[in-house]
Design goal:
Number of helices: 18
Mean pLDDT: 95
Distance between the termini: 43 Å
Number of strands: 43
Shape: globular
CATH topology of the domain at 2-12 and 32-318: Rossmann fold
CATH class of the domain at 2-12 and 32-318: Alpha Beta
Enzyme class: hydrolase
Structural class: alpha+beta
Signal peptide: 1-24
Pfam families: Peptidase_S51
Radius of gyration: 27 Å
Strand content: 25-35%
GO biological process, one term: proteolysis
CATH superfamily of the domain at 2-12 and 32-318: Class I glutamine amidotransferase (GATase) domain
Function: Exopeptidase that catalyzes the hydrolytic cleavage of multi-L-arginyl-poly-L-aspartic acid (cyanophycin; a water-insoluble reserve polymer) into aspartate-arginine dipeptides.
């Protein structure tokens, strides 16, 4: 439930819960049942997790499943899980909501606190013994243990019955709080700062005035025999609290942090743990780590993704066979900046370590930081040794999927100080780029589907948007020129086929300025095709055209003549667009849509260094000053940027907009697996997909003083699926499934600044949603990004027009939007003192 989706500082004291961390005796090979442990925010569309749980329960025709609602404050999540099971084929008569709770639920006539006595009734025992699977919904894990444990921590009759069917072969599953109760040592509250400060409590001492919380531990139910489990792991950046707990209480066991919408499947007979779902599982091995006060050395961290397994008895990792090693074959070769706030690329720890360290031949260690607003915190060093391994593959289409083994983490206490200075970036280079004149005509009838990259094959919302706008019986063309091979073009053709498009209606056009890998033909010979009259005439027959991702400069070089004029093929693309066709693209295929095309550069470097007139191909995608080129101009209402969340491109889009944005026009940063749809008839843009679109408004922004790197009063909005912006009136329509958080903020706590990859909710949209928009206590929050003693303080503030919105999506996942958050950017000197 939403009420329990943020345990950073607020943990309710439950009457009758037992303090004290104890260890249950391990079962010696006697458990025949399995576990499905989900890290929270399980999407109703996550078929892999639902089907696994149903199959382990006996299959949809034979399963008999009981749902325990005790963790939640209402029966809503319980009823939703029942509906989800039924949508996957389980009959309604085969699903029971077990009347087990220690508290009353909101929204019902019955007083469910009376259910507490049911745990000692034979009727409940008989009901449980007839089940093949039990599911614990999310909420407050203390409410589960308070329901199923006696005051002396011994098992109630209901819990004894659950253990009996578990030993005999039943599957137990749970999400969020339902995952936390699975281990003996149950982490009930706290955060990474509290963990690194080595602060532990066995009672609720939560304080909304404090910026971090000590780690609160209680006794769990012990179904999981092989270590500690934590949940909402990557989203709430809980590595610090899990690592500290493992070092203190379970040094001879591994500890497992499960991301949202992700599960581990535990086979007690085979003694294996397998990962399924959409994200990663962190495995912490504290056995060889050393801890001295607040300093930690040589903590072993691994990351597993879907299909990976761990053999407990043999202490062996088995990586999904479709992944290939990165060792000796690293794809990237760049000097990464330390992960220091919302301007850092790959802002979550698994992504940062994957791209910047393990799959990057340039470095052997990387850094991040975690600290409070007083600068009291920690420097985090991550390095590789001879045991470190990386593995890469694709998942859900062409999304990168990494697994990492044996990265070392070191934690050192620091004091950090920031001092404002407008004298730091005197070598800032202004943009010398001359924007082209727009060739868009107001009577254009077509539409655009601009995806931010990493588009999942399962993202039905985006594919449907493209197909519906092409129309029934449409013919499609794919332009492959951005890519280094034809693989992504064939993958997109296959995806269209999976959504009902006959592949005979799809063509891959012979347009490229370079040769493709893996083919016999030399596709660089296609360069002259852009002015081939027959190909230009053929283009006129298409109703939908898609640009695949890669390097956007290859698209413009393929379709523009050397003098910048339109080729014959590009003229045909404009003609069908003006007559009603849909044009779409992902990543590079989105970047080319505006007149001003951002081709390279990073956020920190663009704010610090400005712009460059040279371009070093794809290596410049990971940093450096921004490089601009002429785009194709199909979208006439502002500048487009992509991979916005994962590559943290806020800074470069702001600087580019300041240099070349038109009056009253916004700029748009599109997240991965998300699309911005432009409807030329309605003169509007709408968001679809799994992320959001950041809207940058510099209409009232100022650049005070002489520093080109300083800004005041930038307006920042974040729109998510179903939200719409009228480009003429500038009015925003928020999807009607969301409600305003303004004056109804759910949280009340002091928020620490965004300081690196272990900041809770590290991606920009979620960070602002949870810490500012839906937090009554804060009127502003800060983030710091820095390198070699120089950096930026970013202050995000509420103003008179600021409004946040919240709802549920895809099950019980939080879905936020906000409009008109104010942003100031101030250069700062940075001094770091290491505390010994």
């Amino acid at each position: 439930m939403r009420k329990w989706l943020f345990l950073l500082l607020s943990v309710l004291l439950v009457v009758g819960s037992q303090s004290g961390v104890t260890h249950a005796e391990k079962e010696e090979g006697g458990i025949k049942g399995n576990l499905v442990i989900v890290g929270g925010a399980l999407g109703s569309s996550n078929s892999e997790v639902y089907q696994e749980f149903i199959e382990l329960s006996g299959g949809k025709d034979h399963a008999k499943i009981g749902i325990i609602p005790a963790a939640s404050s209402s029966l809503k999540s319980t009823q939703k899980f029942k509906e989800d099971l039924m949508s996957y084929g389980v009959g309604e008569a085969s699903i029971e909501i077990l009347p087990l709770s220690s508290h009353d639920f909101k929204g019902t006539d019955e007083n469910e606190s009376k259910w507490k006595s049911n745990v000692q009734k034979n009727e409940s025992v008989d009901q449980i013994k007839g089940l093949t699977g039990i599911w614990f919904v999310g909420g407050d894990q203390l409410k589960i243990t308070d329901t199923l444990l006696k005051k002396n921590c011994k098992q109630t009759k209901a819990l004894e019955a659950i253990w009996e069917i578990y030993r005999d072969g039943a599957v137990l599953g749970g999400t969020s709080a339902g995952a936390a109760i699975m281990s003996d040592v149950m982490i009930t509250g706290g955060d990474s700062l509290g963990g690194f400060h080595q602060e532990f409590v066995e009672e609720d001492i939560s304080n909304p005035e404090a910026e971090y919380a000590p780690v609160y531990l209680e006794k769990g139910l012990g179904f999981f025999q092989w270590g500690i489990v934590d949940q909402h792991f990557n989203e709430r950046s809980r590595l610090g609290r899990l690592a500290a707990t493992a070092l203190k209480y379970e040094k001879n066991q591994l500890a497992y942090g499960i991301d949202e919408d992700t599960a581990i499947v535990v086979d007690n007979q085979e003694q294996t743990i397998e990962v399924i779902g959409r994200s990663t599982v962190t495995v912490v091995d504290p056995s060889d780590a050393q801890s001295n006060g607040e300093e930690i050395k040589d903590l072993d961290i691994s990351y597993l993704s879907a299909g990976d397994r761990y053999q407990v008895d043999e202490k062996n990792y088995i990586i999904q066979e479709d992944k290939v090693t990165t060792n000796g074959y690293e794809y990237y070769n760049f000097d990464p900046l330390p992960a220091t706030g919302v301007l850092s690329s790959y802002g979550t720890l698994p992504n940062y370590l994957s791209y910047s360290l393990v799959d990057n031949k340039a470095v052997n260690e990387v850094y991040s930081y975690l600290y409070d607003s007083q600068g009291d915190g920690f420097e985090l060093t991550f390095d590789q040794d001879e045991n470190s391994e990386g593995f890469w593959g694709y998942q859900d289409g062409q999304k990168d999927s990494y697994s990492l083994l044996h990265v070392n983490m070191h934690v050192e206490p620091i004091e950090i100080d920031f001092e404002e200075s407008d004298q730091l970036f005197k070598d800032y280079q202004k943009s010398m780029f001359t924007p082209p004149n727009s060739t868009y005509t107001p009577d254009t009838k077509g539409s655009l589907v601009m995806a931010g990259g990493a588009l999942g094959s399962s993202n039905k919302e985006v594919y449907d948007a493209f197909i519906e706008r092409a129309g029934e019986g449409a013919k499609y063309a794919i332009i492959p020129s951005a890519s280094s091979s034809l693989k992504s073009s064939h993958a997109f053709m296959k995806d269209l086929g999976s959504y009902g498009i006959n592949e005979t209606n799809i063509d891959i056009l012979p347009l490229s300025n370079h040769d493709f890998k893996g083919t016999e033909e030399d596709e660089s010979s296609w360069m002259d095709n852009k002015n081939d009259r027959k190909l230009a005439e053929k283009v006129l027959d298409y109703d939908g055209v898609w640009f695949v991702g890669g390097d956007q400069t290859d698209i413009t070089a393929t379709l523009l003549n050397e003098d910048g004029s339109k080729s014959k093929v590009l003229e045909s693309l404009w003609e069908i667009y003006e007559n009603g066709a849909v044009l779409g693209g992902t990543s590079a295929g989105a970047a080319i849509m505006s007149d001003v095309m951002i081709a390279g550069g990073g956020s920190f470097d663009t704010l610090a260094k400005g712009f460059t007139e040279t371009y070093d191909s794809m290596s410049q995608q990971e940093g450096g000053p921004s490089y601009l080129e002429k785009g194709l101009g199909f979208f006439p209402y502002g500048i487009i940027d992509q991979h916005f969340d994962n590559k943290a491109r806020l800074g470069r889009l702001i600087a580019t907009t300041a240099a070349h944005g038109e009056e009253r026009e916004y700029s748009y940063g599109i997240d991965e697996d998300t699309a911005l749809i432009f409807d030329s008839n309605k003169q509007s843009v709408e968001v679809v997909g799994r992320g959001g679109v950041s809207v940058i408004d510099l209409a009232e922004a100022k650049q005070p003083g002489s520093s080109p790197s300083s800004y005041q009063d930038i307006r920042l909005s974040w729109l998510t699926s179903g939200d719409l912006l009228d480009l003429n009136s500038k009015e925003t329509s928020i999807s009607d499934h969301k409600v305003s958080t303004t004056d109804y903020e759910y949280f009340y706590y002091e928020a620490a600044p965004h300081s690196g990859v272990l900041t809770p909710h590290p991606m920009l949209g979620n960070f602002l949603s949870y810490t500012l928009l839906d937090n009554e206590k804060e009127q502003e929050v800060k983030s710091y990004s820095f390198h070699e003693g120089k950096g930026f303080e970013l202050t995000f503030k509420k103003g008179k027009d600021t409004e946040g919105f919240w709802g549920y999506q895809d099950g019980n996942k939080d879905d936020y939007s906000y409009i008109d958050v104010y942003l100031d950017i101030q250069p700062v000197k940075v001094d770091i003192e290491h505390i010994k």
